[in-house]
Amino acid sequence: MHDPIAHLNADKSARQERLMELLRIASVSADSRHAGDVKLAAEWVAERFRSMGLVPEVVPTAGNPIVYAESPPVPGAPVALVYGHYDVQPPEPLELWTTPPFEPTLRDGNVYARGATDDKGQMLTHLEGAAAWLAGGNGAGDGLPLQVKFLIEGEEEVGSANLEPFVQENKDRLACDVVVISDSSQFSPGMPAITYGLRGITYYELRIRGPQRDLHSGSFGGAVTNPAVTLAKMLAAIMGDDGRVQLPGFYNDVKPLTDGERAEFASLPFEDAVFAESLGVDGLTGEAGYTTLERRWARPSFDVCGLWSGYQGEGAKTVLPAEAGAKFSFRLVPDQDPEAVTASLESFLESLKPRGIEMQLIDHHGAPGVAFPPDGPFISAASRAIEEAFDAKPVKIREGGSIPIVNTFADQLGAEVLLLGWGLDDDNTHSPNEKFCLADFHRGAAASALLWRELASLGQG
Amino acid sequence: MHDPIAHLNADKSARQERLMELLRIASVSADSRHAGDVKLAAEWVAERFRSMGLVPEVVPTAGNPIVYAESPPVPGAPVALVYGHYDVQPPEPLELWTTPPFEPTLRDGNVYARGATDDKGQMLTHLEGAAAWLAGGNGAGDGLPLQVKFLIEGEEEVGSANLEPFVQENKDRLACDVVVISDSSQFSPGMPAITYGLRGITYYELRIRGPQRDLHSGSFGGAVTNPAVTLAKMLAAIMGDDGRVQLPGFYNDVKPLTDGERAEFASLPFEDAVFAESLGVDGLTGEAGYTTLERRWARPSFDVCGLWSGYQGEGAKTVLPAEAGAKFSFRLVPDQDPEAVTASLESFLESLKPRGIEMQLIDHHGAPGVAFPPDGPFISAASRAIEEAFDAKPVKIREGGSIPIVNTFADQLGAEVLLLGWGLDDDNTHSPNEKFCLADFHRGAAASALLWRELASLGQG
Predict the structure, then answer these.
(1) DSSP alpha helices (H): ranges in A353-402?
(2) ipTM
(3) N or C: which end of chain B has fewer CB within 10 A?
(4) A223 closest CB neighbour out of B228, B286, B354
(5) What is the C-alpha end-to-end distance of chain A, expressed in Å?
(6) Nearest residue of chain A to residue B300 (CA atoms)
(7) Spatial distance between the Cα atoms of A118 and B259, rounded to a whole number of angstroms
(8) pLDDT score, position A140
(9) What are phi and psi of B433, to 5 degrees?
C-alpha cells in the first residue's frame, strides 16, 4: 500500500526546491508594478496542481485570480477545503534585508524570503501533503482518502475584496465539512497550536458636536457644554473600574470559558511579567477575575483606537472646541451579537448626552466571534496528525483578533475552520528578513498528509 | 475757571480729525513689512503728547517702542496710569472690507478702519480727556487735577512680550493708585460697563504613555492598559455630573459671589435661549446653582481644549495606541491659587493612574483671577464719570477670560485696574470692517475728562 509519509521523506529536496521556486516570484499584490509577477505566481500554483494530477482553474476576479482545484469525491469521508494565498506583502524597506527578498536564502535552518511563512511556505505544505497521497493514485486525481478542495487567492494582503463574493457565489462548489488554513504561528518553538476561536469585533466612530464654532474658553467656559469633555465622559462611562464594559446586557450572551479551556490556557508557558516587559509597560490591567490569556483570547474588551478634538499643536490655545471625535471597538466573543451591542451602545450614549450636544455614531463594521469545539472530532483529528508530525501534542488556543475569512467560511459554508499555524512569532511577517523554519515546512507537509488520513477516518460527518 | 467739557465740545471736529490721522497709519505689529508704520504710529502718539504739553519718551525695546508720558504730580490726589496700544491686527482678508482698512471712512455714525476700536480710538479718548484739562494749564503739562501717566505700547496684538519686563524694571516710575484701560466693550449699545473682575487660568498638557508601540487591538485589547481610555477616564473624573470640578480642595479658596453681585448680574439683559441660539446649541450646562453669567464670569470652570490619540484618519484602524494626550484648562476666580490647583491636580491624576501607564503633566501657564471691589471708591468714581458722559449708569460686570497685563499691573504696581470699554460687541474687532461709534469716541473722551475730576476728588488714596 502507498505510504504518503515515505513519499514525503523521499521527496524532501524536490519539495524544498519547489518552495524556493515559488518564493522567487515577487507576487506583491499591493504594488501594480508586480502585476505580472502576481499572475506568474497564480500560474505557478495552477501548474503545481496539474503536476499533482488535479485540474486547476484560474478564476479571474475584478482583482487578482483565484486558483481553484479539487480532488474527486470520496464517499463516506468528509470534505476538506484548504484556503491559502499566493500574494505577499511589499518587501520595503529593502535596505534592511540581509539577502534580497526574492532571492530565497538558507541560513541556520531557515529560508529567508518575502512570503516564506506568509503564506507561500505554509500554504504549500497542504499542496505537498495532498501530493504525497496523489502520488499513490492513478495520476488523474485519485489517491486521497477524502475529497480536498483548494482555494488559493491572490489578494489576502490587500483585503481579499473579491474572495467573499466568490465564496457566496460558489457555495455548492465549495461545500465542505472543514476548512484548513495555515497562515499563523505555533504557540512557541516546538509547541504547535490549533487555534479554535477568534474574537469578533464591532468598530465605531463617535462624533460629538457642540457650538457651531470654536469658542474662547475664557468667555464661554463653564456655561457651554464642552464636546471634548462630553466625549471623555462617554468613553469613560463605557469602561468600568473593574475592567468590565458597562453597556447594559453586554455580557448576557457571553459564552463562559469552560474549566477545560481555562486549564489548557493556564498550562501554557506564558508569564505576565515577560509579556509586560516585551511591551515596555510596568504592569497589565483588564477584566477582574481573568488571566491575561483569557482576557486576550476569550473575553470581550473595549479599546479606544483614536481620539481628536480642538487644538493639537504646540503650546497652549484656550479654545472650547466645536467638535470632538473618537474611534473605538469592542472585541466580541461567542455568542455576542454585534447588532445587539450596537443597539445597547446607542441607547447608552443617548442616555449620557447632555444639553448642547449633538451626537453621531457611525457603525464601521462588525463580525461575531467564532469558537469551534476544542474537543470536537475535527480538532481531535488535527491534533493527532500534528502530534505525529511534530512529535509534540499541539496546544489548543484562541486568538484575540478577527480573521474575516473565517467568519465567511463558517457563515457561508457552515464549515468548521481549523487554524493550524506552522510559523513562529519571530518569523518577521510583514517585516524585512521574513523567514520560515525549513524543518517546520517539512513537518507541516507531514502533518497535512496525516491530517487527510485522520479526517478520512472520521467517516461522513 | 477752565471747563474741560466745554473744551471737548469745542474741539470735537479737531479731535475726530486726529483719530482719522492715527487710523491712516498701518501699524500692523504682526507684519514686518509694516515695521516703518509701527514706528510712525509711536511717533504720532509721542507728537500728540508734545502738543498736549507733555514731554514724551519713546522707549526702545527688543520689539516695538513703548511711548511713555506723564503729567506733573498733584499733591493730595491719587495717581492714575493709562494703558493702551497703538499697534493693530493684520487687516487680512482685504477683499472683505467695504472700504480699505487704512482709509478711515465714516458711515452711519461709525468710523470704519483697522484699529478704530482696538485700540487706537479707545486709547485716544484718554489722551483727549487729559488734553482737555491741559488746555487750561500753563502749556507745560499743568492743568490736570491729578497726575496721569501714559503707557502706550506697540506689541499688544503680538503678545506684549516686552511690556512685563518694562513694568518690572520701572515700578517706581509707573507707581500709581489706579490703572485705566479702555480696550473692551460696553455691555450692549447704550449700556456702558465697568469690568471689575477677570478669571484667571491654569493650562496643562497631559501626556499618557502605554506600550512602547501601537498594538493590534485584537491581540492585545483587554489585557494591556489603553492610554486613550485612561486619558478619557482621567478627564472625565475631573468634571462631576453637577458641573463641579472634582479636584480635592478646588473650591476651598473660591470667593463667593455677593448678593449684590448676583443681583447686578441678574438685572442685565441676558437670555439663555438667545445666547444658546447664537452659538448654535440646543441648551446650556454648567455648575448647578449658578446662572449663565455667573458661570462665565465668576465661577471656576474646566475645559478640554485639545485631544489626540491613535488613528484619526478615515475609516477603521484597529489599534491600541501607544500614547494619548490632552490640553485643558481651569478658569480660576479669586482667591484660587494656580499653584495649589496644580498640586491638587497632580495628586488627583496620580491617584487615578493605572498599571501600565506613564503620565506626564506639563504646566503651560497660570495666572490668578482678579476682582476689585465693585463698590470701592475708584469704581464709584468711574461710574459717576461714565454716567455723566454717557447719560447712562454703567453696569458692573466681570469677564471670563484673562488679561495678563491686568495681573501684571495688579501684582507689580499694587494698583487697582479700571476696565472701561467704550466699544460694542459688533465692532468687528480682529475682523474685516472694524468700526467704532463716533458718538462713543466723543462720550469716551468726556468720560475720561470727568474721570480725572472724580478721581482727583477722592484725595490721596
Answers:
(1) 377-390
(2) 0.92
(3) N
(4) B286
(5) 26
(6) A222
(7) 75
(8) 84
(9) 60, 40
